[in-house]
Amino acid sequence: MENSSTNSRFRSSLFNHDDEDQDKEYVGFATLPNQVHRKSVKKGFDFTLMVAGESGLGKSTLVNSLFLTDLYKDRKLLNAEERITQTVEITKHTVDIEEKGVKLKLTIVDTPGFGDAVNNTECWKSVADYIDQQFEQYFRDESGLNRKNIQDNRVHCCLYFISPFGHGLRPLDVEFMKALHEKVNIVPVLAKADTLTPSEVKKKKFKIREEIEQYGIKIYQFPDCDSDEDEEFKQQDQELKDSIPFAVIGSNTVVEAKGRRVRGRLYPWGIVEVENSAHCDFVKLRNMLVRTHMQDLKDVTRETHYENYRAHCIQSMTRMVVKERNRNKLTRESGTDFPIPTGPGLADTETEKLIREKDEEVRHRAEHGHGHDHQHGHDLNNEHVHEHNHGHDHEHEHGHEQHQDPHVEHEAHSEHHPPYPEGS
Amino acid sequence: MENSSTNSRFRSSLFNHDDEDQDKEYVGFATLPNQVHRKSVKKGFDFTLMVAGESGLGKSTLVNSLFLTDLYKDRKLLNAEERITQTVEITKHTVDIEEKGVKLKLTIVDTPGFGDAVNNTECWKSVADYIDQQFEQYFRDESGLNRKNIQDNRVHCCLYFISPFGHGLRPLDVEFMKALHEKVNIVPVLAKADTLTPSEVKKKKFKIREEIEQYGIKIYQFPDCDSDEDEEFKQQDQELKDSIPFAVIGSNTVVEAKGRRVRGRLYPWGIVEVENSAHCDFVKLRNMLVRTHMQDLKDVTRETHYENYRAHCIQSMTRMVVKERNRNKLTRESGTDFPIPTGPGLADTETEKLIREKDEEVRHRAEHGHGHDHQHGHDLNNEHVHEHNHGHDHEHEHGHEQHQDPHVEHEAHSEHHPPYPEGS
């Protein structure tokens, strides 16, 4: 309920500076997070969730249950023959939903339920390609001239559905997750958990976690707790981490259980309640995905997976330019003054070093989580830490000539200062 | 006092999902702004403020008064001869301050008080260059391979000090502001306002606003109010807009006025209280700069001034590459396959069109404010607006070949798909 009075709260924080705020020691920049909060509400949010795994594991039902919306209104169930073609397509559903004044543009990327095909070799390929294509589009857009209305279709999370009937992971699961784990945040779920008893769930989860470790699969790592969090928070965080893979049950049906109307499944032996945490991890998954970690999933996508993709692209471009230049050297002399993003010196040493570092970082995250990576660049000392950057002081001399105003003389400007970096 | 319990508030919003939250119609993404809030606190903030204007107008004193810190501890006052050299330098002071758990890395960029030199021709040049250099550095950094720890030195706001003794603006003021107004958010202040009576302040403000309009100077425009704000909010917002240029008085001295200890100036005829809104606009300026509009100043810098600079850079690069290619055509045939950011087709038509649009946009903002520009891309309908993007559906076919996995075969990948845009 913390958002119900967003507007009035901000209105008061923005203008009604009462006597308290006239406090001699209070400047007022403590309102910065509120300014950010307010702007984010105004702008609205977006989130792209991919679902993958064998067909028939209840992917669509779970998504509908998670977001209390019918994303697949128009879907028709296909017969066996049609299903062979159905599996080759990746489809995208977008829905604008609003809750307590917060707008979310939710996109669900539905991948072919790959168990359906007879030959599943490289079934992960089209999914991996899809993710790369979204990165590529974003790379083009953010390298372009007009970046005002870039549509960001990068995939923030992939819910990977594991069959409750396998003995742990199936070879296809391993292959699929390994093909994707450096491109997207994978969150494994144990599907249709109402076919397993609590002790079976426990054993199966343990087995799957063990195999994930054993096969070197890097699933999404929850960020570490801050050390200043209280014990209760830390315990809940640990519980969340121990719930992987989340055992889930989906249902779009409301049934009556002990006088309450709940979403669930009515069996002759009892009622399975989707949102009862004694029955499955549905609520835990939804809380993680929506209420606590949605922003982190977006941040990791942007800061790690996308940056990874981008670094690989730049590396290959650089290699190509170097090759081209070497070719040019045979025909003419002055082929070295192109303003390309990365200079020739970088090509085989610096670039590769950086990419190795990035790979290392991804590995590190997978092993140790990444919660603290977001926190950097700020001195932890309390107040008035003077940092007179004398290295940077006096960095400017009056009347120097080499830097031209780009508004005045474009050609001259860029010939003196190629705006893309050449050496760093 | 809205931030005093930041941690506990978030802790409870992140994990304690009580019965209220089990509401059947509540998914939970309304916590997204809180996730953003929380992350912003964790990461910390930075802000770069530039002060400019004639020397002797109390720039340093005002900055110290604004942030309740002594940024100029080490500064020595210079004699007349020294001052001639002093004025040619731009200096930068950084201080880490913390308030209610919110960390701010504040950078003050101090520009030469230009009235000191005998010849002030192009005195704005070094300041304009400084701003461009920060943009250029950022452009290099964000075009580089490792973008993890980019230090952002872009100038978010320039407080421009106007002398209380001029009859409105001086020619130098006009020249200076016009040279900078497309690069930085200019906030004009009427300095040392304790030398003017209230009616003089009123007349001088009116004159200055008139001249700003008349000379086509585009100062920072406060974003428009949302139409759903209440009347009180709208009135305060209008008052803020009518206060331009803020009449300010700085003081680092605490004096006793009617039994209270206040920051002020003790005259034989009375005490000028810096934070008394009947005496000057200091509190209004501080509220605007720090408590209400700091994030907007950063956003406009990033979205308008920097994007403007970047577009000009890319345009000049493109022109250069086209020239180079034309030169190449004379010597060899196959010179057209470089993966440059913007393709040749763009050079003189698309690029320039986009830059014209950007210029138009800046003009539009200056004329109409820009408050609503941040809000786009989200449907305003309430819930469950289905948007089955059938244009984008089925966008993927199984087993197609043209997109290579960049992890596997870099050279092939980039030769099929130059990752930089060639046509958009």
UniProtKB/TrEMBL annotation, chains A, B:
Ranges of residues in domain Septin-type G: 43-316
Biased composition (Basic and acidic residues): 326-335, 350-424
Gene Ontology terms: biological process: cell division
Sorted UniProt keywords: Cell cycle, Cell division, Cytoplasm, GTP-binding, Nucleotide-binding
Record keyword Nucleotide-binding present: yes
Compartment(s): Cytoplasm
PROSITE patterns: G_SEPTIN (PS51719)
Location of the region described as Disordered in the Swiss-Prot/TrEMBL record: 326-424
Molecular functions per Gene Ontology: GTP binding
InterPro entries: G_SEPTIN_dom (IPR030379), P-loop_NTPase (IPR027417), Septin (IPR016491)
A cellular component annotation (GO) from this entry: cytoplasm
Site annotation Important for dimerization: residues: 165
Family: Belongs to the TRAFAC class TrmE-Era-EngA-EngB-Septin-like GTPase superfamily. Septin GTPase family.
Name assigned to this protein: Septin
Lineage of origin: Eukaryota, Metazoa, Chordata, Craniata, Vertebrata
Gene designation: sept4b
